[in-house]
Design goal:
Blueprint: H1 2-5, H2 8-27, H3 30-53, H4 63-85, H5 92-128, H6 132-138, H7 144-155, E1 160-167, E2 177-179, E3 182-184, E4 197-202, H8 213-224, E5 230-233, H9 248-252, E6 263-265, H10 275-284, E7 288-289, E8 293-299, E9 302-309, H11 316-326, E10 334-339, E11 355-358, E12 387-391, E13 394-398, E14 416-423
């Protein structure tokens, strides 16, 4: 029986790679067809190699079960990506039974393709010298990406509850650099001598397979219950599934109606895919949208100016300089800038705002943050990945996001549901 079932996997994998992009090209267009074709080419090549090597070291009694899991994973991936051709928000059965395992399988297989290349650097010399025992010993390492993917599947949709403290400072590091930040996840810290500005940031919720309307609404309710002075939303609210789902965003953010005049948002890059849907959803939730606009709010710690910068891809220095000149600094106000992409912080004029709030990077999404280390795969890139950064007297806080999009798992980088206490002095 198993001899007949085992060859099904490469057949279904090849059919998935061929038929889903073809269906996408016919029904949706070239861009998604190319995206799905490239994604499957990398991911399924890794999956097929790992699957083909399993009989060489896995006990025969376990092989049918593992083969069944591979079949389920590739079938779920095919169904999920086919669904994206006519994307819409789905119910919990589809999300849990198809979307989550399908996306986790694609992510693990994507990692497996590159992991196998790294292992080849070790395997080829061992094979050349005939070290068969060593080759057999490292054979189980083939499935490490799938073990990582399984763990990430269980934890990806669970943001870490935190209290973050950032101090307003007159220190002025000449060069852009990461700065220490206080994070409290379990026991609450001792109270501060002076009341801080209490901020909740919501960024990159990405309503879709990993973030249902119900899940996001529950999270927003929890954050509002922490009694922030302001709720600041820094973009990327939707995914392909939710772009056409009118009313979903407003329903998810409904708890913000309890904070009239204290909730402000700006656009991220994905919000330009369905700007009218985002505008309507934010308005329904009572959120003021600041797209290259500003507002001044009286808070318990004094007046706060909030400037929202639209997401732009080019000439960002001119765009940000012009925006900040339109709303010049006024003495006695704390000045906050909502800036979706933290890499644009490099384009800001120096010392023109006190605190910049960004998202976009999903915290780096793959890294060692869960183990208490700052390292992520974006650590050497142009994108500040997560945490606190500074240049001059301006500070940048990069939130890890409440959801994610694109690479369909968080690996070692939990989402963030934090209350930020900004110490005025």
């Amino acid at each position: 029986m198993y001899d007949w079932v085992q060859p099904l996997f490469p057949f279904i994998a090849f059919a998935t790679w061929l038929l889903v992009p073809l269906y996408a090209a016919l029904q949706r267009g070239r861009a998604f067809a190319i995206f799905s074709a490239v994604t499957f080419a990398i991911a399924l090549s890794g999956a097929c190699v790992v699957h083909a090597r399993l009989p060489g070291w896995l006990p025969a009694s376990v092989l049918p079960t593992v083969d069944g899991l591979f079949l389920y994973g590739v079938t779920a991936a095919a169904l999920h990506y086919a669904h994206l051709v006519r994307a819409r928000l789905r119910g919990p059965v589809f999300r849990v039974g198809i979307s989550a395992p399908g996306q986790a399988f694609v992510a693990a297989s994507f990692m497996a393709a590159f992991w196998l290349l790294l292992l080849a650097v070790v395997r080829v010399p061992l094979w050349l010298v005939g070290a068969n025992a060593a080759l057999a010993f490292i054979a189980p390492l083939d499935v490490l990406p799938y073990a990582v993917g399984l763990v990430a599947l269980l934890f990806s949709a669970r943001p870490a509850r935190e209290l973050v403290r950032v101090r307003r400072s007159t220190e002025a590091p000449a060069d852009f650099q990461r700065l220490p930040v206080e994070r409290y996840r379990r026991a609450p810290p001792p109270p501060l001598d002076r009341r801080p500005l209490r901020l909740v940031q919501i960024t990159d919720p990405h309503l879709g397979p990993w973030q249902s309307v119900e899940r996001l609404r529950s999270l927003v309710e929890e954050l509002v219950a922490r009694e922030p002075d302001l709720v600041l939303l820094t973009g990327d609210f939707l995914t392909m599934e939710s772009n056409a789902s009118e009313g979903a965003l407003g329903a998810a953010l409904a708890p913000l109606r309890a904070m009239p005049g204290r909730c402000f948002a700006t656009f991220g890059n994905h919000d330009h895919e369905a700007p009218d849907v985002v505008r309507a959803g934010l308005a329904e939730a009572g959120v003021t949208l600041l797209v290259d606009d500003a507002a001044v709010v009286e808070t318990e710690v004094g007046p706060v100016e909030i400037i929202g910068a639209d997401f732009v891809r080019s000439e960002r220095d001119a765009h940000l300089t012009g925006l900040l000149e339109r709303f010049p600094d006024r003495e006695g106000r704390l000045r906050l800038l909502l800036l979706h992409d933290p890499s644009a912080f490099h384009d800001l004029p120096e010392d023109v705002v006190d605190l910049v709030l960004s998202g976009h990077t999903h915290g780096g999404q793959v890294g060692l943050v869960s183990f208490g280390l700052d390292w992520t795969v974006l650590g050497r890139s142009r994108w500040p990945d997560h945490g606190l950064f500074g240049r001059g007297r301006s500070r940048l806080y990069v939130h890890r996001g409440t959801g994610f999009y694109g690479f369909p798992l968080r690996v070692g980088v939990p989402g963030e549901a934090s209350l930020l206490e900004y110490e005025m002095s």
